[in-house]
Design brief:
The complex is a heterodimer of chains A (about 425) and B (about 290).
Chain A (H helix, E strand, L loop, with lengths): L1 H18 L6 E8 L6 H20 L7 E8 L3 H13 L5 E4 L3 H13 L3 E4 L15 E3 L4 H20 L7 E7 L2 H16 L3 E8 L7 H10 L3 E5 L2 H13 L6 E4 L8 H5 L7 E4 L11 H18 L5 H21 L4 H10 L32 E6 L2 E6 L15 H6 L1
Parallel strand pairs in A: 1-2, 1-3, 3-4, 4-5, 6-7, 6-8, 8-9, 9-10
Antiparallel strand pairs in A: 10-11, 11-12
Helix pairs in contact in A: 2-11, 3-4, 5-6, 11-12
Chain B lengths: L1 H30 L6 H19 L3 H24 L7 H23 L14 E4 L2 E4 H23 L1 H11 L1 H6 L4 H23 L9 H16 L4 H21 L5 H15 L17
Antiparallel strand pairs in B: 1-2
Helix pairs in contact in B: 1-5, 1-8, 1-9, 1-10, 2-3, 2-4, 2-8, 2-9, 3-8, 5-6, 5-8, 6-8, 9-10, 10-11
Classes of the chains: A alpha/beta (about 425), B mainly alpha (about 290).
Chain lengths: ~425, ~290
């Protein structure tokens, strides 16, 4: 009796497993983002943008008559990133993975994807190193961290020095940054380019992200009396840094961030104190006149869908996730004809979108595998934003700007009087 | 003068560490359980204070009065539901279960409230006192003095009340306490409740300083363990002094060496102390074998 029952259950299970083989109607793509852990907020924010890109594509008929379905992997830590990439490829059988917000996670997971010759489509992580490995199946549609330095340095020469009424080479510049891949590479790129152009660097102060006290760093900066501080933190570090700067009365004429200072969470944590702080970033939210009509239309549709789903305007990370995934969905995959990694590679390398052609404002052209920066979008560039009373706006270069830069930043005493 | 300011920064930071560690050392000292969920109780108390402020407009410092009884009960229930059933088992199982509680709490918070950073900015959050050349932030000063007050209250409770004496008896010698007719399990429930209530007080005091998000506890809990062992497991004054010492070490090494090596320096001090006096600064000899017996 028991044996018969067990064998009936087995037969039933076999039939059930056959039904899942009927997946011919959907195309599976892998997703790797930090949905839990210390980067959970950023991972979830960005994935929402990527998911809307999928929705928009499915509403327009999908790819080759089939709908796109995501298989999610959670990159809580670097170790988890590797394990999840392995699982998505070997167990779920995906040929293409979109991810992953964080440079460290991307570095970890993409070693696995390159080994299996699976396409890794990076929508956000900016560390230069990611595209210095000569990988053939790794594509990064976004800016690289050195681009933030490349934008900040001319900004200092053209805007900051005149505003502070000093010779640019006499300005005292300090950097402070979180000590993982993202912070170190971004700060180093800025320092290297700055020194090449003759800027005067008075100090470098790395810290560990998640530190519960940054007073030592601030005290050291205070002692140096810098004119410009270039900061590359994660959001929670930025909140603590600026709050403690207020507490310890650390005044600086310009605080400029290397990317994450523009992410959501900063305004919520700092309120009005964030006004006047600048940030180097992708051209997200730039003057719409700088975009092509097609890019503008996609961006508007994305913002409409996001607003309807979540009731708010999309955060910057979601826009980035959407725009860079859209490059894949709109320009690469249709040309590739299938998800075969070789076909996708060829199609990606053939893409050539002019400036203003993506929702983020830059064009797209990927470097070939022989290039020093293989797989990087050579047309991506950064701009400078500044926090105003009513939001974060592009202030430089003029072509992309919606507002004018206002420098120097007021002192804490002056802020209290406002 | 910079050195003076660094010392003040260090003491204020140490006060925060002490605040978080007091609850942990009570649980350690009495129940002899390593509560890995301690940081998550801190996170939950910060969230509790945040939601009370956000939804009902209750100031964080006032919310302490509401949070103390709630967290006492939460600690009691945690001890009853998770720890009491496996007290007879190997110490490792007790550790695993608190790790499990910690993960459940972290991911529960993530599920309920998402990963956004939540802050409160009550009017006093940015108030800074200027004493001569020195700057002292009000919320940190309040946290510092609160840790002193808590240590005093608990000291009086343990020394002067009958229940306090019973708790000290269980901490000193479990078997002898049983022979004296003390209900050991009831004492454990009360101790876990007190320990959790202490960290429940820490949450609202920290909320004006740090934003809360599901993993915020993990940044404090490791330091809390260091402070507890440094001060002597089960000794509250030790936890207070240990917190101050770690805070000062961090502040000075951060300025004179480099902020990145702050943790290295205090861990080195910690290791040296353990080699020379394993029971901690003020601990009872034999307490260092917690979890082995």
């Amino acid at each position: 009796m028991k044996k018969m029952f067990l064998s009936m259950v087995c037969v039933l299970l076999i039939f059930l497993s056959f039904s899942s083989l009927n997946a011919a109607e959907v195309i599976k793509m892998g997703i790797l983002f930090p949905f839990t852990g210390p980067l959970a907020k950023q991972g979830n924010d960005q994935f929402m943008g990527v998911d809307i890109a999928r929705e928009m594509l499915n509403n327009a008929g999908g790819l080759w008559g089939k709908k796109i379905e995501f298989v999610k992997g959670d990159t809580t830590t670097n170790e988890a990133a590797v394990a999840e990439a392995e699982r998505l490829i070997t167990v779920e059988g995906v040929k293409l993975i979109i991810g992953t917000y964080s440079s460290s996670r991307s570095m970890a997971a993409s070693n696995t994807t390159e080994k299996h010759k699976v396409i890794f489509w990076e929508v956000n992580a900016i560390a230069d190193e990611l595209t210095q490995r000569g990988f053939k199946y790794y594509f990064r549609a976004n800016v690289k961290s050195s681009d933030y330095g490349l934008a900040a340095v001319p900004f200092i020469f053209e805007v900051v020095a005149p505003a502070l009424k000093k010779d640019a080479k006499k300005l005292r510049i300090a950097t402070t940054y979180e000590d993982s891949l993202y912070g170190t590479i971004t700060a180093d790129a800025f320092t290297k380019l700055g020194k090449e152009k003759g800027l005067n660097f008075v100090g470098e102060f790395p810290f560990t992200s998640g530190a519960v006290d940054l007073s030592s760093t601030i005290m050291k900066l205070k002692a140096l009396k810098p004119d410009v501080v270039f900061i590359v933190p994660y959001v929670k570090d930025m909140i603590l840094f600026w709050r403690q700067s207020k507490e310890l009365n650390f005044d600086v004429p310009l605080l400029i961030g290397g990317g994450t200072v523009g992410e959501s969470g900063v305004v919520e944590g700092l309120g009005g104190d964030i006004e006047y702080v600048c940030n180097a970033y992708l051209p997200t939210g730039c003057n719409p006149k700088a975009l092509t009509p097609e890019a503008r239309k996609d961006l508007e549709e994305f913002e409409k869908i996001y607003q309807k789903k979540f009731g708010t305007k999309p955060p910057i990370l979601a826009i980035t996730g959407f725009a860079n995934t859209n490059v894949l969905f709109r320009h690469v995959l249709p040309k590739a004809g299938s998800l075969d990694p070789e076909a996708v590679r060829k199609a990606a390398l053939a893409v050539d979108i002019p400036e203003g052609g993506t929702a983020l404002g830059f064009g797209v052209k990927f470097n070939p595998p022989e290039d020093k920066m293989a797989g990087h979008n050579a047309k991506a560039f950064a701009i400078i934003q500044q926090y105003k009373k009513d939001g974060l706006f592009v202030v430089w270069p003029k072509k992309y700007a919606l507002r004018k830069p206002e420098l120097p930043m007021p002192t804490w005493d002056a802020r209290k009087k406002k | 003068m910079t050195i003076g300011q660094i010392a003040i920064n260090g003491l204020l930071l140490g006060g925060i560490y002490a605040l978080i560690s007091i609850g942990l050392t009570i649980i350690f000292g009495v129940i002899r359980v390593i509560n890995f969920a301690h940081g998550e109780f801190l996170m939950l108390s910060m969230y509790a204070s945040f939601w009370l402020f956000q939804l009902l407009g209750i100031d964080p410092y006032v919310s302490i009065l509401i949070i103390i009884p709630i967290f006492f009960i939460a600690g009691w229930l945690t001890q009853r539901a998770f720890i009491q059933p496996i007290l007879k088992g190997p110490a490792l199982m007790q550790i695993f279960i608190t790790v499990g509680v910690s993960l459940a709490m972290m991911n529960g918070a993530l599920f309920l409230w998402k990963a956004d950073y939540r802050s409160v900015t009550p009017s006093y959050a940015a108030v800074t006192f200027k004493m001569g050349d020195f700057l002292i932030g009000l919320p940190r000063l309040v946290a510092f003095f609160s840790s002193i007050v808590i240590v005093l209250i608990l000291y009086l409770f343990l020394k002067k009340t009958h229940l306090g004496r019973a708790i000290r008896a269980v901490a000193q010698d479990r078997e002898a306490a049983l022979l004296m007719g003390i209900n050991m399990h009831r004492i454990y429930l009360i101790a876990f409740g007190i320990g959790t209530a202490c960290v429940g007080v820490a949450g609202p005091l920290l909320l004006p300083i740090y934003p809360v998000f599901p993993t915020v506890g993990t940044y404090f809990v490791l330091i809390a363990f260091v402070v507890v062992v440094l001060g002597g497991m089960g000794n509250m004054t030790g936890a207070f002094l240990g917190g101050l010492i770690i805070g000062l070490i961090e502040a000075f090494s951060g300025f004179f060496i480099t902020p990145q090596l702050q943790s290295l320096v205090y861990f080195v001090v910690f290791i040296l102390l353990l080699l020379l006096k394993p029971s901690g600064l003020m601990g009872v000899v034999g307490a260092e074998e917690i979890g082995m017996k």
